[in-house]
C-alpha cells in the first residue's frame, strides 16, 4: 500500500530521480471510501462479465463482429478497476473525466447513468447518444463524462475543461484517463506542456496494462514508466505498483488536492492488468498462455476484499450485501437496454447540428 | 444638405470588432491561438483584444494545435464559447483529428447532448508566392465532412456580421478569412479589402449566399477572392453587352442551393469559380446540384474554373497560371456565349 511520488522541485534540485515513499505520512484511508471503491470495482467487474456474455450472443458458431445485440468493437476493462475507483472516489459530478476507447470502468465509477450507458452500447434510442455513439463514444454531461475512440485525443479536452474551471474560478479538476500506449502520442506531450505552462488543474492517469493492443510497453516506450516524463514538463508524477487499489487511492488523493489547490498537473501511472484481450475476439497470440492466470491470481478486487476483512473493517455479510446491490444495478441496466427500442432509421439524419 | 459619411474598415478590423463586441456581451467568449495576443494575430484578426480584455481571455498558445484546438473543444463542452485561430488552414494536418474526429462528431455521437459552441477561425488563400504549404483554401476539404458549419465571407461587412453569428451559434463553425481580403499593409492593396462596416453589432446568416450583381445572361458563382474576380469580369463583360449575375457563396456548409438554382433558372448558364483544387471540390458540388435540380434550365454545359489539381507553386508566373482570375472568367463566359 504505497506509491512513489516524484516532485519536480526535487528533480530540479538534485538533477536525478527523487523518490519519496509516502505510506507513513498519508492520513489513513476512510473505511467508507474503501467500501465505496469496493462496490464500484465489483459493479465494474460484473458489468464487464455480463458484457462478455451479451457480446458473444449472435457471434457463434461464426464470429462476425457486426452481429448480435452488441455489435462492433468491444474493449473491456476487466482487471483495470483500481485506476477508476481509486481516482473517482475523490471526485464529484462537477469534476470532468475524459476516457479512451476502454471506458466502462471510468464511466461506472464516475456515476454515468448505467441504464442509458448500457442502452447506448446496445444501440438503442434510450441510450446516452440515442444509438449514435456506441461503447467507445459515451457522453454524459450530467456527470461531465466523455470518452472517445482516438488514442490520446481526450487529453486536450480535459485541458480545456481544466481551463474552463480556472476561468470560472471553480476548484473543479479535470482527469484524463489514457492507456500507456497513448503516452507516446503527440497530444500527450502538447497537452502536458500547455497544462503545466498554464498551471491547470489537470491529472493524467496512465493505465499501464502492458500492451498497446499487441505491442508490449518495453517495445514502445523509452522510459520505464510514464510518470518519469513528469519531469520533462515540470509537473508532479506518481507511480502505483501492482494494481493496488489503496495505493491508487492515495496517489489520486494527493494529485486531486494539488489540482484543487492551484498547484498544477500530475501524471499518475498505475501498473494494471488486462485480464482479457485488447478487444473481444482478440486471439492474444502475442502473450504467454500463463500470463493471464498469473495476473488473475493477483486480482485487485479479491485483494481489497481480503484487506477489508483482515482489518476487521467489515464482515462477510456486509460485503455480500454490497455485491448483491451492485449486481442488481447492473442487471437492471442490461434489462433496460434489452427492453428499449431501436431508433427510427431516419433518426440517423438528426443531431448533426443543433438549432 | 447633409451627407452621411460611411465608416470604412478593413476586413481584419471588422473581424476584430465583432469579436470584441461579443466578448463584451458574453463573458464566456475567449480567444486562443498562436500570436493572437500582443501581435494581434498574424493577419490582424485579433488586433486590440489583448489590450482590451487581458491575457486571461486572449491566450497566446504554444505551437501545439492539437492541444489548444482540443482544449477549445473541452472548454466549449463546459459551456464556454472559445474562438481558436489556426494560423494557416494549411496547418490542419497537425490537428485534423481534433477538428474532424472530435469537434465535428461529438455533438452527433452524443445524440445532441453535448453542444460545442466554438469558432475555429483560419486564414486561407494564395496569390502572394507563399507556395504549397501556405496558400491553400481547402474549402472543400472542410465542407465535405459533416458536423461543421463552414463559412468564408468576402467583404468586411460580412466578415463582421458572420463572425458575430458564428460566435453566437451553438454549433462548431469553421470561419475562413482570406489573407488578401484582410487589408494588410504588407500585401497587395486591394479595394475589396476595405468596406463599409456599421459600428453597432449586427448579424449576417451563416447559410445564405449573396447576389452581388444581378444579370440575365450567365450566373457566376464564386467565393472570397473569386467573387471579387467575378465582379471584375462582370464589369468587363457588361462592356460587351453580356450581363452576368454574380453570386457570393459565403457559406460552404450548409450550402444555399436555392439562390443558385433560382439564378440559373433566370440566366440558363453557369460558371463556377473556385480557389481550391478542381477535382471533388466546390465547383463539382455546385455543378452536381444544378445538374440534379435544374439540368433542363441550362442552355450550355456548366463551366468550372479552379486550381488544376496541382499543389500551389511558388514562382509568380506559375502561381498566376494555376489561380483563376478575371481574364480567365471573361474568356470562359465569352466562349460559352459564342457556343450558344
TrEMBL record, chain A:
Reply yes or no: does the keyword Protein biosynthesis apply.
no
GO-annotated biological processes: pyruvate decarboxylation to acetyl-CoA
Keywords of the record, alphabetical order, are: Oxidoreductase, Pyruvate, Thiamine pyrophosphate
Molecular function GO terms recorded: pyruvate dehydrogenase (acetyl-transferring) activity
Respond yes or no to whether keyword Oxidoreductase is given for this record.
Answer: yes
Required cofactor names: thiamine diphosphate
Origin: domain of life: Bacteria
Q: Name one Pfam family in it.
A: E1_dh
Q: Where is the Dehydrogenase E1 component domain?
A: 72-346
Q: What is this protein called?
A: Pyruvate dehydrogenase E1 component alpha subunit
> Which species expresses this protein natively?
Planococcus citreus
Automatic annotation (TrEMBL), chain B:
Q: Where is the Transketolase-like pyrimidine-binding domain?
A: 9-184
Instruction: Give the UniProt keywords, A-Z.
Output: Oxidoreductase, Pyruvate, Thiamine pyrophosphate
Coiled coil ranges (UniProt) are none
- CDD domains in UniProt: TPP_PYR_E1-PDHc-beta_like
Q: Give the Gene3D superfamilies listed for this entry.
A: 3.40.50.920, 3.40.50.970
Q: Does the keyword Oxidoreductase apply?
A: yes
Molecular function per GO: oxidoreductase activity
Q: Which coenzymes or cofactors are required?
A: thiamine diphosphate
InterPro entries from the UniProt entry = THDP-binding, Transketo_C/PFOR_II, Transketolase-like_Pyr-bd, Transketolase_C
Name of the protein described by the UniProt record: Pyruvate dehydrogenase E1 component beta subunit
Q: Which organism is it from?
A: Planococcus citreus
Amino acid at each position: 500500500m504505497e506509491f512513489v511520488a516524484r516532485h519536480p522541485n526535487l528533480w530540479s534540485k538534485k538533477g536525478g530521480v527523487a523518490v519519496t515513499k509516502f505510506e507513513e505520512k498519508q492520513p489513513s484511508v476512510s473505511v467508507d471510501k474503501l467500501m465505496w471503491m469496493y462496490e464500484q470495482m465489483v459493479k465494474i467487474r460484473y458489468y464487464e462479465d455480463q458484457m462478455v456474455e451479451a457480446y458473444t450472443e449472435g457471434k457463434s458458431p461464426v464470429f462476425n463482429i457486426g452481429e448480435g445485440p452488441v455489435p462492433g468493437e468491444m474493449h473491456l476493462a476487466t482487471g483495470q478497476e483500481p485506476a477508476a475507483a481509486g481516482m473517482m472516489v475523490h471526485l464529484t459530478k462537477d469534476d470532468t473525466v475524459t476516457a479512451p476507447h476502454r471506458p466502462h470502468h471510468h464511466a461506472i465509477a464516475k456515476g454515468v447513468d448505467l441504464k442509458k450507458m448500457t442502452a447506448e452500447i446496445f444501440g438503442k434510442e434510450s441510450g446516452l447518444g440515442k444509438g449514435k455513439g456506441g461503447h467507445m463514444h459515451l457522453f454524459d454531461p450530467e456527470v461531465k463524462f466523455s470518452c472517445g475512440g482516438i488514442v490520446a485525443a481526450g487529453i486536450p479536452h480535459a485541458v480545456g475543461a481544466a481551463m474552463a474551471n480556472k476561468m470560472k474560478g471553480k476548484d473543479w479538476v479535470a482527469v484524463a484517463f489514457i492507456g500507456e500506449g497513448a503516452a507516446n502520442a503527440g497530444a500527450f506531450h502538447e497537452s502536458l506542456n500547455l497544462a503545466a505552462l498554464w498551471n491547470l488543474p489537470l491529472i493524467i492517469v496512465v493505465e499501464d496494462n502492458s500492451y498497446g493492443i499487441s505491442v508490449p510497453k518495453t517495445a514502445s516506450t523509452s522510459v520505464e514508466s510514464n510518470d518519469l516524463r513528469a519531469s520533462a514538463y515540470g509537473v508532479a508524477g506518481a507511480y502505483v505498483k501492482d494494481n493496488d487499489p489503496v495505493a491508487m487511492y492515495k496517489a489520486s488523493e494527493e494529485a486531486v488536492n494539488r489540482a484543487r489547490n492551484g498547484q498544477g498537473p500530475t501524471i499518475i501511472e498505475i501498473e494494471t492488468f488486462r485480464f482479457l484481450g485488447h478487444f473481444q475476439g482478440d486471439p492474444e497470440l502475442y502473450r504467454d498462455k500463463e500470463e493471464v492466470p498469473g495476473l488473475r491470481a493477483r486480482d485487485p478486487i479479491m485483494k481489497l476484499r481480503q484487506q477489508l476483512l483482515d482489518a476487521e473493517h467489515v464482515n462477510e455479510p456486509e460485503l455480500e450485501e454490497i455485491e448483491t446491490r451492485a449486481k442488481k444495478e447492473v442487471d437492471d441496466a442490461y434489462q433496460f437496454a434489452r427492453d428499449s427500442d431501436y431508433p427510427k432509421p431516419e433518426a440517423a439524419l438528426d443531431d448533426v447540428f443543433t438549432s | 444638405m447633409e451627407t452621411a459619411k460611411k465608416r470604412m474598415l478593413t476586413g481584419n478590423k471588422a473581424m476584430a470588432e465583432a469579436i470584441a463586441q461579443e466578448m463584451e456581451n458574453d463573458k464566456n467568449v475567449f480567444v486562443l491561438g498562436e500570436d493572437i495576443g500582443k501581435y494581434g494575430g498574424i493577419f490582424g484578426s485579433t488586433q486590440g483584444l489583448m489590450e482590451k480584455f487581458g491575457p486571461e481571455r486572449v491566450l497566446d498558445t504554444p505551437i501545439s494545435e492539437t492541444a489548444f484546438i482540443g482544449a477549445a473543444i473541452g472548454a466549449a463542452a463546459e459551456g464556454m464559447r472559445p474562438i481558436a485561430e489556426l494560423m494557416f488552414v494549411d496547418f490542419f494536418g497537425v490537428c485534423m483529428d481534433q477538428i474532424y474526429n472530435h469537434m465535428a462528431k461529438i455533438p452527433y455521437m452524443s445524440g445532441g447532448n453535448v453542444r460545442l459552441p466554438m469558432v475555429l477561425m483560419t486564414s486561407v488563400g494564395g496569390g502572394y508566392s507563399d507556395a504549397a504549404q501556405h496558400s491553400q483554401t481547402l474549402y472543400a476539404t472542410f465542407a465535405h465532412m459533416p458536423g461543421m458549419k463552414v463559412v468564408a465571407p468576402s467583404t468586411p461587412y460580412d466578415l463582421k456580421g458572420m463572425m458575430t453569428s458564428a460566435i453566437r451559434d451553438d454549433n462548431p463553425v469553421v470561419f475562413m478569412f482570406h489573407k488578401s481580403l484582410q487589408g494588410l499593409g504588407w500585401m497587395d492593396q486591394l479595394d475589396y479589402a476595405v468596406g463599409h462596416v456599421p459600428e453597432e453589432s449586427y448579424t449576417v446568416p451563416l447559410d445564405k449566399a449573396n447576389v452581388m450583381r444581378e444579370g440575365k445572361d450567365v450566373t457566376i458563382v464564386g467565393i472570397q477572392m473569386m467573387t471579387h474576380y467575378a465582379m471584375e469580369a462582370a464589369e468587363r463583360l457588361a462592356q460587351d453587352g453580356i450581363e452576368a449575375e454574380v453570386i457570393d457563396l459565403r457559406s460552404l456548409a450548409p450550402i444555399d442551393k436555392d439562390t443558385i438554382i433560382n439564378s440559373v433558372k433566370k440566366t440558363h448558364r453557369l460558371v463556377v469559380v473556385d480557389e481550391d483544387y478542381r477535382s471533388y471540390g466546390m465547383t463539382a458540388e455546385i455543378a452536381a446540384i444544378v445538374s440534379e435540380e435544374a439540368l433542363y434550365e441550362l442552355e450550355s454545359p456548366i463551366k468550372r474554373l479552379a486550381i488544376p489539381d496541382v499543389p500551389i507553386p511558388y514562382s509568380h508566373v506559375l502561381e498566376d497560371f494555376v489561380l483563376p482570375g478575371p481574364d480567365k472568367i471573361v474568356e470562359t463566359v465569352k466562349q460559352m456565349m459564342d457556343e450558344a
